[in-house]
Amino acid sequence: MMQGVVSAFSALATVAMIEECLMESALLKMYYSRLLQTIETERNLSGEQVLEFHLFSFLVTIEYQSRIAWKNQLLVGGEDGVLTVLDPGGSEKDPVLLEQPIGRPIIDILVGEFLPSLGSTKLEEMFSHQMQEHAYNMCTVPSPTVHQLLVQSVGCVLTLFQGDQCVFSRSPLPALHPGPLSYCYPSSSLVTSNEGHLHSVKFSLLAGLGNTGKRVTFDWTFNLGDTCVDMAMEDTPTIQASIVCLCRYNVFCLTTGGTVRWQIRLERVGTALMVYNGGKETLSIRLCVATTSNNLLVFMDNKLMWNSQTEGTVVAIKLSNYK
């Protein structure tokens, strides 16, 4: 079998990707497995709402950056191994800014400053790392100078990269399968999920153990009783720092100390989660959940505020500004 590869590219910002070889004014973006749909607030000359559609082959992951005229640009990757950079709010008829064949299916994308110096507008490979087994997902971890990449494999092995260097590689606990993971800034902890449980560990402790075989002691563990599908952190200053966890039939909101704040019971299986800032000071968490029944549910904390029917099963949601 071939091995998984983690690559970083320079293009206005550094874009980190996991490639699978073994492996109101804002626009609401909904991503289906094959179709990317943009719902615009504009209207055409006849007064009808304008819908823009972009077709991608087996779309897997999306991300966005803000590097041109203070607008967001959209990054799309999929099983065809092509990284596409779109500028939906640009003046050109064709929104595609760049198309870069990577040569391997892309399963995740992150944007950040992973190297001290960045390139200009040219997309070029800065470094790549060969994985010992299939890569599953990744998250960014802050450091004094640049962002670090923490990659999780299908065997639940965590590998930390800083630039072109591998800092450590270790498995925090035996598990049958991996799940979502995220760095929690308020508590400086790594939150992982697998086998129906949520675990939190101080990242300094994890990094200090490095490649040793010493057992990791978690700060806390929470029994979800369900499979975690997605995870997001809420650290807006006016809101209590929280961990929002989407499971198949539940949404849990926990404090950074592992105490449940509230819970939502879903009637259908959840597929995607987005926690977003509404632009106004509030004490409530705003979140959007997609389900297998092709519904898009908007909540304020655990109160349903709005729902909509989509044309397909949503696999990822982002809120961006292209104006």
Automatic annotation (TrEMBL):
One of its GO terms (biological process) is cilium assembly. Residues 121-322 form the PTHB1 N-terminal domain. It comes from the Eukaryota. One of its GO terms (cellular component) is membrane. This is PHTB1_N domain-containing protein. It comes from Nippostrongylus brasiliensis (Rat hookworm). The lineage of its organism: Eukaryota, Metazoa, Ecdysozoa, Nematoda, Chromadorea.
